[in-house]
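Reviewer comment 2.1 asked that we show a complete input and output for one of the modelled complexes. We chose the 3,4-dihydroxybenzoic acid case, as it is the one discussed in the main text.
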Amino acid sequence: MAQPIPDITTFFADNPLINASGCNCSTKGMLDILFKSAAGSVITKSATLAPRNGNPEPRYWAHPDGNLTINSMGLPNCGIQYYLDYFKRLDTSTNKYEHARFISLAGMTLEENLQMLDMIFNIETQYYMYIDVIELNLSCPNLIGHRQLAYDFPELETYLSKFIIHYNKLYKATNRHYPIYFGIKLPPYFEFWQFDAIVDILSRLPDNYLKFVHTINSVPNGLVIDIDTEATVIRPKDGFGGLGGAIIKPIALANVRGLYTRFKAAKLEILIIGSGGVASGEDVFEFILAGASMVSIGSQLMIEGAGCFTRILSELTALMEKKGYANLDAFRGKLKNV
Ligand code: DHB
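Response of the prediction step:
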């Protein structure tokens, strides 16, 4: 008898929280903490083919009031092989809450991303049996000499089509009976024509493989200045870096809402992971009301540690009880206009 295919919404339904890739998730020790936390799912730091040290330090700074972070990490990570081995060895005592396992990929070129797919879908090592979701990061703002692909719409379409065709071919050669769920991490868009353009591209992708978008990545190329030292607070790229924290929340909510309404209008079944300035249960509520299926936590995880998931979930539960909502579907996407 054919095995049932799990619905991707089962990962997203009960507990919508996930760490944002890049925040405290690059080593085994950090990932173990996340897998023991109250998050519903766990994602790795974006992996490249070879390990990377990243940009020179200081490369991360948080405002003392917790509302603003700036980073220019430059993709420091242990390399794809490390994360594949991590998932293969992850046992049920560490992953006792059965968090969904997300791997984030950020190859420097399409070829590098395709090579990482080859490693995931290797028939002998079968790493594909230990991963639930692949997130392709198209929006790292901090690579010296690289532009963000997700702002180059014509090139993005070709790139994603080639990625998906390769992915499909590899998956079909395995003994998995359904594909690993696949999604992309997007940068913030600011104009309605940009929302229209990205939705257009996603609607034309082959084979209905794109299951979610994760929006937004850090707001690129902000600049924070220290008055006392009269210097930038981070060193790489002359102090320019990706912004996070509460100050970016309105931009993030606009991107969730802008994509959610367009996906609905185009009848596209693409889920949204909302990200950007989430620090409380109230914030999670706002993202779900705007249309998110899942919500990721970045800056607050860096500031507070993995205990933030327990606090934020209990705040969300208390708010839902106060409002009389039995589950997330009762208010998901139902934002009203005044
Ligand atoms: C990096 C920063 C990001 O904001 C991101 O989404 C991915 C990578 C980095 O510089 O490592």
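The mean pLDDT is 95. We note this here for comparison with the apo prediction described in Section 3.2.
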